[in-house]
Amino acid sequence: MTGMTLCAAVAVLLTGCGSGTPKAAAEGGKPAAASQSPASAPAAKAGGTTHEVTLEVGGTGRTAVMYSGVDSGFEQQTLPWTKTGTVELTAAEQKVGYLVNVVPGTVTGPDGKLQQAPCVIKVDGKKVAESDGVKTAKGCSYTIK
């Protein structure tokens, strides 16, 4: 009986977890769950704020770029590369934060050696994260609140 109770409890907990991830407005800003009733949709964004987010990768040539927060993807891009989109945060996301990041691949540096391409994240036009690809070669990451 204990095993059945545990399985039931896990099922209830997993059912409660779900589409808590916001979508970029470029995707329509609507949750992926098709079973959501129209009456509950406005409540999900109650007290929410909207931000314009710009991801930039510098350099020349082509490199792989992984990004998330404003849409998401991992693909070869021609540099310099820019992606701009709008994200809408719920009241809960304003408290805990919403992560955006960009991780560029390598480019040939001025000395002929490979290095990570530089990157920048801007939120509402303000630069909030930056990596030169040499001293800080971890890409760019920022939590919007």
Layout of helices and strands, plus pairs?
Blueprint: H1 2-16, H2 41-44, E1 49-69, E2 71-89, H3 91-96, E3 98-104, E4 106-108, E5 114-116, E6 119-123, E7 126-131, E8 140-144
Antiparallel strand pairs: 1-2, 1-3, 1-6, 3-8, 4-5, 6-7
Brief digest:
This protein has helices at residues 2-16, 41-44, 91-96; strands at 49-69, 71-89, 98-104, 106-108, 114-116, 119-123, 126-131, 140-144. By secondary structure, the protein is an alpha+beta fold.
**Major sheet size, sense and barrel closure:** 6 strands, antiparallel
How would you classify the helix and strand content by structural class?
alpha+beta
The stretches of 5 or more residues where confidence is low (pLDDT under 50) are 1-44
> What proportion of the residues is helical, as a percent range?
10-25%
